[in-house]
């Protein structure tokens, strides 16, 4: 018979708490070997052991029927050969057993010898078939046995009632094993599903971190390179405008602005690379990112844009200073303003006027960046950049929205609405 696994065989944390190889061993111990060839070999060895025990019973028990003759031995052997396939087709094997054993018992051969094989068939039906089949088989076996025994006399009928108790016990044991096997299978399935979910979550977090780093590098490099390009153009223009009357102070200021921009970019780039080195799954990864840039850093962005020739008008409402915006919202607003200023410096034409307004309304932070420039956002013949895409993604990460397009009075305008609620730090820096 199948070896019933007790509930104690399942670890306290369920199969989900068991490593892969140990979990496979647990499944094989409870559900049986997985390979068809191994199952057949196991069942063949079990049938051989049962046949050997039947031979021993025939030699030892002599008060319950006559010793089997050649036909009786053939039927007894056929019954034990049949149970080799009991787990593949429990109902068909049970029907074959009933036919073989009815013929065997009609010979009045040793009635105890086939007891073990018949109980094995009953147990297999109860443990591997539907409850309805278990009830049908049990009722048929008990009904046939009681009918035959009571037809031989009350003494034989009373003795058969004792055997009925064994039949019911094996059927109940099989039902218990079937329920326990289903429970373990469901727990194993949940554990495997949870493992797949963890792997998908890990892949999702890696993808989010890659996207976050890509956005950070885009904002950092695009902003810094744009400023450096404009500042070096200013220095080149001063040098080439009037070589005889060189404005050394203007050249020096332009070069100092370039150096300052490079130092700032180097510091932010180092912080971003430190995050990559620390790993995204470490508990200290958030601390490794350092403090997130926020609304208090907006004046620095405005000053940097002014060094590139833009006229920046920064307006931060008084209510913004007291709204205590979550760090993620402040960082999103900072990056949106940074990218919008970079686009204005690159595309709005020479010496554009850019107005930056930051206010609060309806429990949300409203950020508007508008310039008076002219021309397309991207030079003709170039592929679209990721600036506007990145700004929209940053707004979405904190549950906000962003719109960008031509302003009502010309130029270009970026408008973002960021809710003033706690937001996850994933994807922001």
Structural description of this entry:
It is a single chain. With 429 residues, the protein is of the alpha+beta class. The chain has 13 helices and five strands. The chain has helices at residues 20-31, 36-60, 70-82, 90-106, 115-128, 131-151, 154-241, 248-278, 285-288, 298-307, 318-321, 327-347, 387-397, and strands at residues 311-316, 353-361, 364-371, 401-406, 412-419. A five-stranded mixed β-sheet has the order 1-2-3-5-4. Strand 2 and strand 3 form a beta hairpin. Helix 3 packs antiparallel against helix 4 and helix 6 (131-151) packs antiparallel against helix 7. The two termini are 63 Å apart.
Kindly summarize this structure in a few lines.
The chain is of the alpha+beta class and 429 residues long. The protein is built from 13 helices and 5 strands.
Task: Name the descriptors.
13 helices; disordered N terminus; 429 residues; alpha+beta; 5 strands; rod-shaped; 5-stranded mixed beta sheet; disordered C terminus; 9% strand; single chain
In terms of DSSP E residues, the strand content is 5-15%
Q: Could you give a short account of the major beta sheet?
A: 5 strands, mixed
Give the proportion of residues in helices: 55-70%
The number of distinct helices, counting runs of at least 4 residues, comes to 13
Radius of gyration: 41 Å
Please provide the count of β strands. 5
Based on secondary structure, the structural category is alpha+beta
Q: Note the gap between the termini.
A: 63 Å
Instruction: Give the averaged pLDDT, no decimals.
Output: 77
Principal-axis shape equals rod-shaped
Strand order of the largest sheet: 1-2-3-5-4
User: Uncertain runs with pLDDT below 50, 5 residues or more?
Assistant: 3-19, 280-289, 375-384, 423-429
SSE string, helices as H and strands as E = HHHHHHHHHHEHHEEHEE
């Amino acid at each position: 018979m199948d070896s019933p696994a007790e509930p104690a065989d399942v670890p306290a944390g369920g199969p989900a708490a068991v490593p892969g190889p140990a979990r496979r061993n647990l499944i094989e111990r409870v559900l049986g070997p997985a390979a068809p060839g191994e199952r057949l070999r196991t069942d063949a060895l079990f049938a051989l052991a049962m046949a050997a025990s039947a031979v021993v019973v025939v030699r030892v028990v002599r008060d319950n029927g006559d010793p089997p003759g050649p036909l009786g031995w053939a039927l007894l052997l056929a019954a034990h050969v049949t149970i080799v396939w009991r787990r593949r087709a429990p109902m068909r094997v049970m029907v074959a057993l009933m036919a073989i054993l009815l013929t065997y018992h009609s010979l009045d051969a040793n009635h105890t010898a086939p007891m073990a094989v018949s109980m094995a068939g009953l147990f297999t039906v109860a443990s591997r078939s539907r409850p309805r089949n278990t009830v049908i088989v049990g009722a048929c076996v008990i009904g046939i046995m009681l009918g035959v025994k009571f037809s031989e006399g009350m003494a034989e009928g009373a003795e058969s009632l004792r055997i009925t108790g064994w039949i019911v016990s094996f059927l109940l044991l099989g039902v218990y094993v079937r329920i326990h096997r289903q429970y373990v299978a469901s727990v194993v399935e949940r554990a495997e599903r949870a493992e797949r979910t963890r792997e998908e979550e890990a892949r999702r977090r890696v993808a989010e971190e890659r996207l976050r780093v890509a956005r950070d590098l885009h904002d950092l490099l695009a902003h810094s390179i744009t400023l450096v390009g404009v500042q070096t153009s200013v220095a080149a223009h001063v040098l080439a405008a009037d070589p005889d009357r060189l404005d050394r102070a203007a050249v020096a200021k332009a070069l100092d602005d370039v150096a300052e921009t490079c130092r700032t970019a180097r510091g932010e780039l180092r912080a971003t690379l430190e995050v990559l080195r620390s790993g995204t799954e470490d508990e200290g990864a958030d601390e490794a990112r350092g403090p997130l840039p926020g609304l208090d850093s907006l004046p620095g962005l405005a000053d940097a844009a002014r060094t590139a020739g833009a006229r920046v008008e920064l307006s931060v409402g008084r209510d913004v200073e007291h709204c205590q915006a979550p760090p993620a919202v402040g960082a999103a607003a900072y990056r949106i303003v940074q990218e919008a200023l970079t686009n204005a410096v690159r595309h709005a034409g020479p010496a554009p006027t850019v107005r930056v307004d930051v206010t609060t309304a309806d429990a949300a932070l409203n950020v508007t960046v508008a310039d008076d420039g002219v021309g397309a956002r991207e030079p003709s013949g170039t592929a679209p950049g990721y600036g506007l895409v990145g700004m929209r993604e940053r707004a979405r990460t904190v549950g906000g929205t962003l719109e960008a397009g031509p302003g009502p009075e010309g130029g270009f305008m970026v408008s973002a609405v960021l809710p003033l609620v706690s937001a996850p730090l994933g994807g922001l820096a």
